[in-house]
What does this fold into?
Amino acid sequence: MSQDKIFFVAIFLLIATVGGSFEKGTRDYPIKPVPFTSVKIKDNFWSKRLEINRTITLPHNFQKCEETGRLDNFAKAAGLMKGSYKGYQFNDSDVFKVIEGASYSLQVHPDVQLNHYLDSLIALISAAQEKDGYLYTPRRLMDSSYSPPGGKDRWVGEKEGSHELYNLGHLYEAAAAHYQATGKRSLLNVALKSANLICETFGPNKRHEVPGHQVIEIGLCKLYRITGEDKYLRTAKFFLDERGDAKGHDLIGDYAQDHMPVIEQDSAVGHSVRAAYMYAGMADVASLTGDASYIKAIDRIWEDVVSTKMYLTGGIGATGGNEGFSHPYALPNLSAYCETCAAIANVFWNSRMFLLHGDAKYLDVVERIIYNGFLSGVSMEGNRFFYPNPLESFRGANRAEWFACACCPTNVVRFVPSIAGYVYAQDDQNVFVNLFIGGESTVKLGNRSVKLTQVTNYPWDGAVRLQVDPNRPEEFAVRIRIPGWAQNRPVPSDLYRYLDQSNEQVDLRVNGQPDKLIMEKGYAVLKRTWKKGDVVEINFPMPVRRVVANEKLLEDKNKVALERGPILFCAEWPDNKNGNVVNLVLPDNSLLKTQFKKDLLNGVQIVQSSAVSVRRTLENTIVSDPAQDFVAIPYYAWAHRGLGQMNVWPAREVSAARPLPAPTIAYLSKVTASDNRRADAINDQLEPKNSIDHTIPFLHWWPRKGTTEWVQYDLKKEEAVSRTAVYWFDDTGIGECRLPKSWRILYKDGDQWKPVENPTAYEVEKDRYCTVSFKPVKTTGLRVEIQLIPDFSAGLYEWKVE
Ligand SMILES: [Zn+2]
It folds into this structure.
């Protein structure tokens, strides 16, 4: 590329990313983010995280892509290596996402070695691309041992999960990032060649398949912004407009938001990552085309999500079965799915809603996610990841170093470096201060340049000092986001509220003089002639607050969560008596204290109080024990100290707590099951609401079908037993577990298992306990032997013994 071309590209990028208009399309978001390349983070909280992402998470992800054959797939497709395709059909996308993350890292932290490594990967990807631009290693490598959905036919496997277009969306995003970071066109050329093929292939009077997993819409918009080529934008819009097409081709239904035309959709359904990527893509296309019908639709869907489908962590996607949205107000904590990718996708979407509307309420959601529901997804060391992020756990969870489906780790690595890009935004007359993160930034307002220096110990302290240094005195407005949490409103809806009102006021000063809060769309507007050295000081009071949920959210009924500033807390086992936290009641009148513990979990604020422990007796009554110390830590920091209980929503009253189990024969027994299943769900004394209750743990044998299985109690001591009861799991309509064909009880006699004698009928019924009485036996072991029906599996919630 010639020097003048490089210069042209540089100017173009500046215009495209910083604002103003460009020849081809004059429309874009009315507000522009201040790109993260113009924001240098320097603080006590995020600096460390960014550095860990660069030095640990990034190499870790590349290493895993190498080890798992993700890179080899490209080498094999290029004919540089022998062998067949390895892994899932969406594995190409992981490599693209890590390249995107690496490119972001290069932009702010030049690294010759990384630059060369990317060159070698891009050469591999380029070599795997077919002559006409087609790039999808699963199909290029298909042979007798492996075939992707669609077989040998391109594009037809989308609804069966080929992820052909999904992979390309991530390629386009990676290419845009790499081009911006390095000025090199190597990956961009691959992407454009592919996108040209897409535009030739899909459109009116061409192919009409829609992406099974959205993201290509965002990718095409990025290519449009770089090249100004209308066809990329047109095709992004085509993919959106084809969804829910009544002509009946390629309907994927609710799961992939293909159930009705996108402009008619008014609630969030289906797979939550697909959904939020789509809503973000709709925002992009709306801003670039001015299509208001898209905006109306995503406005409605946004109301639906923040009012009925969002966890207090900012997480979305309540159920694992569809990796997605459930019914309004159905937000179970124990089984909460809240995929890390969905948290990231929700930031993409909400940040774009802000760029469209200029309202701080969208940043309230963004902030809630990045400090809570997203941040829990990656370990402090940067090399372990959560896929789901539940809000309650009985036995704890370990973050994994990788997953066969590795969408989350590769999303983390590209998201963390971009966080700086959410701190500030601007239009011609306004600078928006959206997040409170220390560091320096330079904002170009037309031909003016304004340096911003933020100093704060956020999120632990609400004092923020912002120095505003324009290159010459100028009039413009600095809009400072006053977070909802500082205005007695934790979320921009009535889904959650603080239990009491705080009268502590936000303190705002300009050059030491108190200033009135003139509020507009959630911002304090400071319009004046700014001159070098002007200083804004804001102090957000950060008392510990009690949060309660809308009464329609039954899972959180009579429960309470604790917040301080943007941080949500949870009680975890190491800090509380006997490691029990799900059985604790935190009464409304127990005093909440807080302090910073610099040696705990890399330095965290904790909340201390007094709670009551609740347990069940053998007589099946619930009793509470004397008050005990209660400690809560930030939710994002849980699961760093081994396995044990965690709870975001302790009970406010005894009726809402999960009592410690009574010391029954069953509870004191050791549980084992055939096929090495984790069986301790069946004596936890958690009562199912019905046979398809996904909110509590259960034992199941899926995917084993039609077999004979067992579950066994080794009793603590010899007992006389004459009655037992089981509660079956059956997920007809969702999964493959059904009531079993039959079952019976065996007891241990010496080292022999014998059937009990004279049993009453072995009932097999849904939605209630099936009880059987038999001739009393003295034994140290009991077994339920279960015959599964052909072609189906089975499961069990509870097994009681008397
Ligand atoms: Zn994921």
